[in-house]
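=== RUN LOG ===
request id: a7f3
mode: sequence -> structure
chains: 1
length: 469
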Amino acid sequence: MGMKDELIQPDRGGAATTIRLVTADTFDRTAITLSGPQRSLLAAQRFTGKAGQTAILPDGEGWLALGGVPDKGLSSWCLARLAEVLPAGTYRLAEESGFDGVDHALLGWQTAQYRFDRYAADAAAEGPRVLLTGKAGAIAGALAEARAVQLVRDLVNTPAEDMGPAALEQVAAGIVAAHRAELTVTRGEQLEADYPMIHAVGRAAARHHAPRLLHLTWGRPDAPVLALVGKGVCFDSGGLDIKPSAGMLLMKKDMGGAAHALALARLVMEAGLDVRLHCLVPAVENAIAGNAFRPGDVLRSRKGLSVEIGNTDAEGRLILADALTRASEESPALMLDFATLTGAARVALGPDLPALFARTDATADALLAAGRAQDDPVWRLPLHAPYAEGLKSDIADINNATTNSFAGAVTAAIFLDRFVGQDAAGQPIDWAHFDTFAWNPAPRPGRPRGGEALGLRAAWHMLQGRFGS
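=== RESULT ===
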């Protein structure tokens, strides 16, 4: 399951098969240097240098590979198709210095070789494709980001029975142990008292999937506080407002926000950013039983606001609200949350673009710029205050759902905003919210169908720029 770290190695001159990258514009010049039989083989393979095309040619006693790329500026995915189709072995790029962005493309070389085979007893064992590179300084970062992507994919791809709240706790505990961090887990009566909405959403689950709040802390106590929060709904039936069967098929991925938060927390610790890290994951299963919370119920929240339940299938914002309230109590310099929160975001932006909401333009702009630079785009939507009217309740401080179908991603973000507090100076906390899909519905080079990190690398590079040395 996953990938191997040795897929990218420093080039020390060892034996390797050559990969020549070409564009449609430069292919004719490349073909001139090839022998007649080589050109004939390319013609037989219908290779024209178009982006994504690959070809294999004999070369002396060995062979070489050709890969088509859009232009000389490589994206994260320019080497991915080669890593998917070439035979197992060791490779190096010819004229590596002639292309910009090779360090970006190292990521796709690795993520293309990801396989989730935990349950496939007869899965074919493919040998790795190892890439030697002269970009030695980029290797550590590329490996770390690929491992973070792998963690998100593994957690999201794992079925709910094996990735319930207890399993998420084990994952967090493993991360904590590896980085000398601390993990506090709140369950049972203490959860009901301190985080009443997390408890209410998760209380109908079986005992071995009981709800809990995971709170990971790391870093020197007087460093700037960075808070990461991730929605950990390990399976979402919709509760008593039950989803149709088709709507439940992918609900093992409803903890994708938690997967992003944990992967990002691990990146922060691995890189040693000078922050006081607080990573909070409310982990629940939104199940159906006689003690499930009901439409029309009014729930207490940690913040003290009362919440009327207009829809039990809008449960993610409830558990996030308690976690965001707790994170706010640390007066963070920055708070980011990740959640597979609304279908409305997918209707608006499709599966590839996480919807980004932010209180400040500076933070939003930094995240957008990092996403563009790292081929991990996000798209900003507004925290349009007038839409808060749709969350009014006749009997409580706020309703968790609107009665219309308009701007569902916006109203969900506005709901969350009510639970994000102020910093120590009494100013609104700098907060950004990612409404992400965490799933690839169709395979593309470097991105197989299944769980996916979307918005993770944008956030990571923004954090490096803000808190890195």
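=== NOTES ===
The chain is about 35% helix and 20% strand.
The first strand starts at residue 8 and ends at 10.
=== END ===
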